[in-house]
């Protein structure tokens, strides 16, 4: 069977398969094994601090001569406000009380002790290590980050969970669009509020593509 297509040729992999970047589960060893098997291994960096990102990328790259992707969370980190503190406190109390009712000991951290890494802090590390494929979820990259990555010949893979998100990624010149439906379960990489099943989304995307043929549309991208 012939596996070569635009996706495999653009990234330099043998099979059009991308190993899921599962934050907290994926290890450098898993990424190495997936890439050596001919797929695109994906190293999940989530919202890890730059130092840890650098360490994981180094551990992967020094044991692998094939392409692999790094995956980051593109979250909009809210400012710590009075309302946010109140919401967090109420949620913390609820979770801890619920756990106690089921004889579980759960203690959530205080809000001020939580540090969330802005993905822009990770971009410097990604460029320094010359990573050539970056996938992202929970949002869209800002214009400056997209330019910096593309100026360094990085292929970008964005996650969409609705037609509106797919169009937003296409308009941002994202190279590859990963389509994720409700069937993903657990959590989804949404940044638009409209939930939609994978089947409905693919059908809708198809008709959207058909209507836009020839005018610089999503047809120029790969949907996976």
UniProtKB/TrEMBL annotation:
<keyword id="KW-0288">FMN</keyword>
<keyword id="KW-0560">Oxidoreductase</keyword>
<dbReference type="InterPro" id="IPR013785">
    <property type="entry name" value="Aldolase_TIM"/>
</dbReference>
<dbReference type="GO" id="GO:0018580">
    <property type="term" value="F:nitronate monooxygenase activity"/>
</dbReference>
<dbReference type="GO" id="GO:0009636">
    <property type="term" value="P:response to toxic substance"/>
</dbReference>
<comment type="similarity">
    <text>Belongs to the nitronate monooxygenase family. NMO class I subfamily.</text>
</comment>
<protein>
    <recommendedName>
        <fullName>Propionate 3-nitronate monooxygenase</fullName>
    </recommendedName>
</protein>
<dbReference type="InterPro" id="IPR004136">
    <property type="entry name" value="NMO"/>
</dbReference>
<dbReference type="Pfam" id="PF03060">
    <property type="entry name" value="NMO"/>
</dbReference>
<keyword id="KW-0216">Detoxification</keyword>
<keyword id="KW-0285">Flavoprotein</keyword>
<keyword id="KW-0503">Monooxygenase</keyword>
């Amino acid at each position: 069977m012939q596996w070569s297509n635009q996706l495999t040729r653009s990234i330099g992999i043998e099979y059009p398969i991308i190993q899921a970047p599962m934050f907290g589960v994926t290890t450098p060893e898993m990424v190495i094994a997936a890439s050596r098997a001919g797929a695109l291994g994906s190293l999940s960096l989530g919202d890890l601090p730059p130092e840890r990102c650098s360490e994981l990328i180094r551990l992967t790259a020094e044991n692998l001569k094939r392409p692999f992707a790094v995956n980051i969370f593109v979250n909009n980190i809210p400012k710590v406000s009075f309302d946010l503190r109140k919401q967090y406190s109420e949620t913390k109390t609820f979770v801890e009380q619920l756990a106690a009712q089921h004889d579980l000991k759960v203690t959530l951290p205080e809000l001020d002790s939580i540090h969330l890494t802005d993905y822009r802090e990770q971009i410097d590390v990604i460029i320094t290590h010359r990573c050539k494929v970056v996938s992202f979820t929970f949002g869209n990259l800002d214009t400056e980050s997209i330019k910096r990555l593309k100026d360094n010949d990085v292929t970008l893979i964005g996650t969409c969970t609705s037609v509106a998100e797919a169009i937003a990624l296409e308009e941002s010149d994202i190279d590859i669009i990963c389509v994720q439906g409700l069937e993903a379960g657990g959590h989804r990489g949404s940044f638009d509020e409209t939930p939609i099943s994978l089947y409905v989304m693919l059908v809708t995307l198809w008709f959207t593509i058909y209507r836009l043929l020839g005018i610089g549309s999503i047809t120029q991208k790969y949907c996976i």
